[in-house]
Amino acid sequence: MRRFLPQFAVFVVLSAGAVAYAQNSGDNTGNNNSDVKGDRKDLRQDRKDLKKDRKDIRQDQRDQKQDRKDVRQDTRDLRKDQKDLTQDRRERNQDLKKGDTAAAAKEQREINQDKRDISKDRRDLKAGRRDIRNDKKDLHADRKDAHHDRKDIRKDKRDIHKDKKHG
Prior knowledge:
This protein is an all-alpha fold. The chain contains 3 helices and no strands.
């Protein structure tokens, strides 16, 4: 029995190696097909993600364009209200010099209204600039996601090609 022990050990090692090799190489139809199938599924998902990211990029660009338009409009409104305020103050002072207190009171109401408008326009301007900043961040994130999706698509195509070539 002792003299067959080394031969038996060699036999076990060789047969275990042969079984492992057969399992890995075999005909590979089941394993290779599932790899290709999985890679194709990943490719489809990455293409969907890329399409969604491109759509998000376009939407963020539209939002950014609209926010810039709103900021320009708010800036115009602010300038107009400041001019109106200056004009109303001038008219109020003229009315007070003339002694017309009723007209001065009317001008004071307009001054107060212009001050409220200016305050509102400043808030709108600040919010618009914040929106632009947020849209820039969203746009950057979407472009980054799209870049990663394009890289994933290239990788999936390479994997499919490699699996077909070796299978």
